[in-house]
């Protein structure tokens, strides 16, 4: 699984680099290239694996795979801004507003979001009906009823005295990180016109397991391995899966969710073993 | 012309309000509604008029008309941020980061950009091929080779000692404000599968005339009439069409551009008189 993830991450990176080569030499273009490098490409990998499961052409699937990584990169650049999470380190490197400035970081995020929609509506991505479907679903997953809603709930939670309950955190995370993971996991099925239900169930469990592991890393990890600041949630007195379930409880919950994710793919048999491997990888990672 | 503009602006506003009614009661949703109110809707009007010229169904054209106003609103919210133009007043009201905070303003802009792509890929907007074409062209007009490039050039210009030349300002403005105006004016022709050339020529001249008038208002207007801060460019020693051409020269240039814009529509005859009226309106407005 990890070899295939690395190979797919390489293909996505190459495609992103090619697309962004045309964007000139101004600081925003340069920072767009910077912000899209060095990620694990888990979301793009989900697109490519979901496409393989449905015999979708890999060259076509590379467009939505690259699009979701551009969109994810935009969300990180804006999330790291001083007015948001105020993070100086991302993927082991200075964040965009630290390396350049805030105005550049705002524009880079904005341009990366546009780029995601440009990539997904590229003619090589598939017939128009596929592109329109991918665009509509991505816009909904990213916007004020998806990822941005999750971020808004997250910010609102910081200013209330009562910590969130487990149900509230689950709702928040399903919007904040879950919506894009759901979109990525189902994009290949969408392209094939197949049933989205099995991969949707897989993605919901995977997304939560992913977030629980993020909370675990925030408590147990070190910044060098994580490539970003750690210990921030506890310091802020923020409710997390770890603060609510305890470290062992959070790990047990993540393991159960990974089992759920794997079982959701039973209709695909052994063909889905790579996606099952990804689910297990997600809760073993340290960054 | 102004009656029709007012009627179309009302229809666009109603449609935006309807769409945003589903977005809940969190501050980001509330601020999205706030940020999309009170505009002149010139870009949306261009979409609807371009559609009328080509006998495109008005209900279908309302989707891209609403989309371009959502996209324009996003660009204003982000432009007004402290790290960008740092403006406290917009459309006669406090800007989003003043009324709420910076984090909300960043998220509101992000969500409004997603919303634009959601609107434009809505099934009621037209057949999939139309939607895919509108999406690809809008993503290019908005992103790092369109509007955001213009904003990046604008920021870069502020930090260089030599003021921009007329050619450089023209290039900058054609990206910063011209790209969206071009998209809006040609959207109806796109939906009809018609030749984009006449409306493209119209939009290029109109976009520049629009920007020149903005520079004129910045020098001659007062904040109450303009609904935003004025005199900022001169105070910042920034090169503008007025600083380069003088006030009379700038006005004369705008008038010539309006003639060019009107002439570009000769193939449409009297049917394009409303668009010609809009071009004349653009250089007479005080806000």
UniProtKB/TrEMBL annotation, chains A, B:
SUPFAM superfamilies according to UniProt: Terpenoid synthases
Cofactor(s) the record lists: Mg(2+)
Gene Ontology terms for molecular function: geranylgeranyl diphosphate synthase activity; metal ion binding
InterPro entries: Isoprenoid_synthase_dom_sf (IPR008949), Polyprenyl_synt (IPR000092), Polyprenyl_synt_CS (IPR033749)
Enzyme Commission code: 2.5.1.29
One Pfam family in the UniProt entry: polyprenyl_synt
Pathway this chain belongs to: Isoprenoid biosynthesis; geranylgeranyl diphosphate biosynthesis; geranylgeranyl diphosphate from farnesyl diphosphate and isopentenyl diphosphate: step 1/1
Catalytic function, reaction form: isopentenyl diphosphate + (2E,6E)-farnesyl diphosphate = (2E,6E,10E)-geranylgeranyl diphosphate + diphosphate
BP GO terms, sorted: carotenoid biosynthetic process; chlorophyll biosynthetic process; photosynthesis
Keywords, alphabetical: Carotenoid biosynthesis, Chlorophyll biosynthesis, Isoprene biosynthesis, Magnesium, Metal-binding, Photosynthesis, Transferase
CDD domains: Trans_IPPS_HT
Catalytic class of the enzyme: transferase
Free-text function comment from the UniProt entry: Catalyzes the condensation of farnesyl diphosphate (FPP) and isopentenyl diphosphate (IPP) to yield geranylgeranyl diphosphate (GGPP) needed for biosynthesis of carotenoids and diterpenes.
Family: Belongs to the FPP/GGPP synthase family.
Name of the protein in question: Geranylgeranyl diphosphate synthase
Native source species: Roseovarius azorensis
């Amino acid at each position: 699984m990890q070899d295939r993830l690395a190979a797919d991450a390489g293909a996505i990176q190459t495609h992103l680099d090619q697309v962004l080569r045309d964007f000139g030499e101004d600081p925003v273009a340069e920072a767009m290239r910077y912000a899209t490098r060095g990620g694990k490409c888990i979301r793009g990998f989900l697109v490519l694996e979901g496409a393989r499961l449905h015999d979708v052409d890999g060259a076509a699937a590379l467009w939505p795979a690259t699009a979701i990584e551009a969109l994810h990169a935009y969300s990180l650049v804006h999330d790291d801004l001083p007015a948001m999470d105020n993070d100086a380190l991302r993927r082991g490197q200075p964040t965009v507003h630290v390396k350049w400035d805030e105005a550049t970081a705002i524009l880079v995020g904005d341009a990366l979001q546009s780029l995601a929609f440009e990539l997904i509506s590229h003619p090589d991505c598939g017939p128009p009906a596929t592109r329109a479907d991918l665009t509509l679903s991505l816009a909904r997953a990213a916007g004020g009823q998806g990822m941005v809603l999750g971020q808004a709930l997250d910010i609102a939670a910081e200013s209330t005295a009562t910590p969130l309950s487990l149900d509230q955190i689950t709702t928040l995370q399903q919007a904040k990180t879950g919506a894009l993971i759901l979109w990525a996991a189902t994009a290949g099925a969408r392209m094939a016109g197949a049933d989205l239900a099995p991969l949707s169930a897989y993605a919901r469990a995977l997304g939560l397991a992913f977030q629980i592991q993020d909370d675990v890393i925030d408590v147990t990890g070190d910044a060098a391995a994580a490539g970003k600041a750690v210990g921030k949630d506890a310091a802020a007195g923020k409710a997390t899966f770890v603060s609510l379930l305890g470290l062992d409880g959070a790990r047990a919950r993540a393991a159960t969710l990974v089992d759920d994710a794997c079982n959701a793919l039973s209709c695909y048999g052994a063909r889905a073993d790579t996606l099952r491997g990804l689910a297990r990888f997600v809760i073993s990672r340290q960054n």
